[in-house]
Design brief:
The chain contains 19 helices and 11 strands. It is of the alpha+beta class.
Length: about 450
């Protein structure tokens, strides 16, 4: 009976976001991908006598090393792997869990239970108050004789110095992280184009429509719904073949959804990729996308993920709901701090799951420019099915144009419900907005507010 060991970088989004420079964030993403490659770990630990082998039943996920080890050598192996990762990723938080079971899927409940009290490795804390902090992250102390801390220096070495053959940018400015390169190559092949990565967020924002302000980006966090219950249910089937391929299938569906959604966000005149993929691990994805294509990306991702999982063949006697994908989206000026955007996107993702009990693909969002850094009390998540059902309403509100939409939002913002409806109906009648008049009699006021806010960045 094998013993399964998972060693993972945790709070990955926050780790990547600790430096403001996109180039260094790409370096961190590259380091996470290469350092947590199971093949790299196996090569490093050859001859240690710990019985470390790759767990081939686990899917590919940046930031996670999935291994099998000799029984009773779990902690020793975990500590060795953590020390190995600490050398490559000085400032990342690490955790390790392990369990013995007939299969990786059978081990899942025990591994999940341990994640509340795992073996943890934290980065060293700066404790010399007179030291000079790193000029990049402003968190840790500079190394002797340098301008950066140990972690930022590692990021710098990983950024812009990766060999991609003929596509390598000599100055690093057009290079990409590992996940970006994988998506870029797939999209270029699928769409028969020759796009390159953007150099910075300002360039990403400028890909927006010429009718817009072209200075906003969206941070999108996506995560699977009901994954724990799904894997637990499958573990009870005792189907060894199913146990072996289901986790890789989830990872493959996520990667395919990321590629499909990015390809769907491309416009005919694009010369650069409109999406920056920061994290893609298992069912966890974080990207930045030009603001007025965010809804196209989210819609494409959720649909592609669902369609990919439909291809997974479950035995006829297995009664389990396939997972779906929820999203949290934050729209903000391209100069808005990325670290704060990531935290807010996580908040919106949690709200999307909370509002729907994680039962369906859903999305919740925050528009920092209009809402500030806290969503209005009436804001709720919409499920994918609800947005499909409201397609005519979204189009009708979008057809009002920016001025008309703002007028509608102002009418919806204050007063008792009866007065709001009367004001909207009167305004719609005077201006010939027949569909808006109809909607005011069928939609809840908060839903109308939500759809009006949704259409600010919606494009057909």
């Amino acid at each position: 009976m094998p013993t399964y060991l998972d060693v993972a970088a945790v709070r990955i989004q926050h780790y990547i976001a600790r430096t403001p420079a996109l180039r260094l964030r790409r370096g961190a993403s590259w380091l996470l991908s290469t350092a947590t490659s199971s093949d790299s770990v196996l090569e490093y630990f050859t001859g240690t006598g710990l019985g470390i082998a790759r767990n081939r039943d686990a899917g590919d996920a940046d930031g996670i090393i999935a291994l099998t080890v000799d029984r009773h050598a779990e902690r020793q192996a975990a500590e060795h792997v953590m020390l190995y990762l600490r050398e490559l990723l000085p400032a990342v938080e690490l955790q390790a869990v392990w369990a013995t079971a007939d299969s990786y899927l059978d081990a899942y409940p025990a591994l999940a239970a341990q994640r509340s009290c795992p073996l943890v490795s934290m980065p060293p804390q700066a404790d010399f108050s007179l030291g000079t902090t790193c000029e990049e992250c402003r968190v840790d102390l500079r190394i002797a004789g340098g301008a950066m801390c140990e972690d930022c220096l590692a990021r710098d070495r990983g950024a812009g110095r990766r060999d991609f053959g003929v596509d390598k940018a000599q100055d690093g400015s057009e290079d990409a992280s590992a996940i970006e390169r994988a998506v870029l190559d797939s999209v270029n092949k699928r769409r028969s184009v020759h796009l390159r990565p953007v150099r910075h967020f300002e360039e990403l924002a400028r890909l927006g429509s010429v009718q817009g302000n072209r200075n906003h980006v969206a941070t999108v966090a996506l995560d699977g719904n009901g994954m724990g219950a799904f894997f637990t249910a499958l573990a009870h089937t005792g189907n060894a073949e199913l146990n072996r391929y289901i986790s890789p299938a989830i990872s493959a569906a996520t990667r395919e959804a990321l590629t499909a959604a990015t390809a769907g966000a491309i416009r005919p005149n694009d010369r650069t990729l409109p999406v920056i993929a920061h994290v893609s691990g298992g069912d966890d994805v974080v990207v930045s996308v030009v603001a007025d294509r965010a809804w196209t990306f989210v819609d494409g991702f959720q649909r592609a993920f669902t369609n990919e999982l439909k291809k997974v063949q479950l035995p006829t006697d297995v009664r389990v709901e396939m997972p779906s994908m929820s999203a949290g989206v934050v729209f903000a000026h391209q100069k808005f701090p990325y670290a704060r955007a990531v935290r807010l996107a996580d908040d919106m993702l949690r709200k999307a799951k909370h509002d729907t009990q994680g039962a369906q693909a859903a999305v919740c969002w925050l528009d920092v420019t209009e809402d500030g850094e806290q969503a209005p009390t009436w804001r709720r998540a919409f499920t994918r099915d609800e947005l499909d059902g409201h397609a005519d309403a979204v189009k009708a509100i979008a057809d009002l144009g920016n001025t008309g939409r703002q007028t509608l939002q102002r009418l919806l913002s204050t007063g008792p419900e009866e007065e709001i409806i009367a004001a909207v109906v009167s305004w719609a009648r005077r201006n010939g907005h027949t569909e808006i008049r109809r909607l005011s009699g069928h939609l809840d006021i908060d839903d109308m507010r939500g759809l009006a806010a949704y259409t600010r960045w919606w494009r057909p």
